[in-house]
Amino acid sequence: MVIAIIAILAGMLLPALSRARQKATGIACINNEKQLAIASMLYVAENRDFFPPNGAGDPNVNLTNPPANYVPKYWVEGRDGNNLVDASASSLVNPRVSLLAPYLPARGSFKCPGDRYTEMVAGRRQTNPRTYGQNPWVNWADEAPYPTSALGDDRTYRNFRKTGDVVNSGDAFLHGEIHPKGICRPFFGVNMATSSGGAYHVPGNYHGRNSNFSFVDGHAESHRWASGTFNNPTSNVDHHGVHGSGYPGTASRPDMLWLSEHTTVRR
Predict the structure, then answer these.
(1) pTM of the model
(2) DSSP string for 172-222
């Protein structure tokens, strides 16, 4: 009888504890994104109002031991499965690799505490060093192929290089969390070519049906998706394996519309 009562109580309490834990990680994640936004604005203040550069990432640099003469090009470094994994996350706070490092020395600010995803790399299990990606239409510094093909045409959509380029700073997202199987390059890809197609990067699913974003005006907020599969698609793809339409369930028109409307604007 006592055991049965304990089992009933546990069944009642565990869901509540799970929700409380999810809410706590959500608050911590939003705080991380606020810190990223503040660090970005500090960079802006010291760099003639230019946002930290964004791009496809350098596939050749050794994140943990960059060459002595290496010149950082992006807000953070890391690209796909070849050099992204940095178990110590040291590159994120190394000014020799990442441009945001001098303004944000806390490694934990680059990773949602709800991201516990692991993968096998070089025979041992490792975690993602980073959860967040920067809006590709915020100071994209590379030439083709992004964002001029896979993510849309910069002759049609505005690339916000400086703060003065932003039409409504409260609407344009600056950083967003990415699904753990899709973490790759420095940017959070949004396909502006179509509002009904799949997302290039799937938003993070660390807080259930919600994903967190920071915005150009410095605030951060949680957004709840209309479709439960938009940020949690059913997919067996490996880490870095597929982007965009390769993730089933990301073609929710209302969700793609919200994401594209908070990414950039037409010229």
Answers:
(1) 0.88
(2) SEEEEEB-TTT--SSB----TT-SSS--SSPBP-TBTTEEEEEETTS-EEE
